Amino acid sequence: MTAAERFFCADAARTRADSLAGTAPYGSVWVLIEHRGGWPPNGFDGLDLDPSTKGLVFSAAQSVRARVLLIRRPGRRGPAGPRRWAVLRHETPGAYRQQWGTWSHDQDLTEIVDALGAPGELGCPPVFLVCAHGQHDTCCAVRGRPVGRALSERWPNLVWECSHVGGDRFAANVVVAPDGVYYGNLDATSSVAVLEAHLADRINAKHLRGYTDLFPPQQAALSAVLERFGPAGRHDYEVVDTSREDNRWRIRFTGRPPHPTAIEVVVHSHRTPPCQLTCRGLSMSSAAVYEVTSIGAD
């Protein structure tokens, strides 16, 4: 295959106009482990660490459904000194907790186990995680690294490259944690604008994949609400009821003024025709799509 014929999943997804809405993985806890060397295709699972330590961290993370991500600062030359780890947790609306530590030896990572059971600190700034896991998917590196550089020039202390977060075809992907917000289809310019708006608590639907405390149909419904009524804060809308009949969901939101106070959204799901969804996955797969068919507001 020539360079001109090489398949890039993010290019194909844009050509197909794949929908972003409703594609954020569910979850509210993240474990971050700084690793400055190359990342194996399967991330943390593939690291050459002390087996006992790795097993403890994996079991503790699994018990709270935490996602374990490898992180590093953007750029070829990272900082010297001890590496960092973190546990980030999204609890009740507005209660974002973080706990950070350092590690020099594999056994130091067992502190993560205790951190997963501790409350963590409130009031820390969010973390911007840019997927740049080239060994997992080419598009994550090709599109993610320029975004990481652009964001780190603007917010050097908040930005990390990270291992696979899902949705390779939507690269560049950025996760804001522990806010639990996924953005996709970003580039160096749009990423800065999107995250400036995020920090101002003005979330826009255009690049939004979803909130990780919502399930895909709810995420799609919220994206439609933001598109219809304009940007809003992370917790300006709350899901108060969700009902399902076959492939149709009826989702009700309450909104904080000046947003509509009561909204009902109907979402239908279907699957796409089989296609190649990732750069490395050669098999054909279909994806779930959540299409909003009606929005009503009081």
Walk me through this protein's architecture.
The protein has one domain (3-214): Glutaredoxin. The strands form two sheets. A nine-stranded mixed sheet has the order 4-3-1-2-6-5-7-8-9. It is built from six helices and 13 strands. The protein has helices at residues 9-16, 51-63, 111-116, 138-154, 188-199, 216-229, and strands at residues 29-34, 67-72, 83-90, 96-103, 127-131, 159-162, 174-177, 181-183, 208-211, 237-245, 248-255, 262-271, 288-297. With 298 residues, it is an alpha+beta fold. Helix 4 crosses helix 5 (188-199).
List the helices and strands and how they pair.
Layout: H1 9-16, E1 29-34, H2 51-63, E2 67-72, E3 83-90, E4 96-103, H3 111-116, E5 127-131, H4 138-154, E6 159-162, E7 174-177, E8 181-183, H5 188-199, E9 208-211, H6 216-229, E10 237-245, E11 248-255, E12 262-271, E13 288-297
Parallel strand pairs: 1-2, 5-6
Antiparallel strand pairs: 1-3, 2-6, 3-4, 5-7, 7-8, 8-9, 10-11, 11-12, 12-13
Helix pairs in contact: 4-5
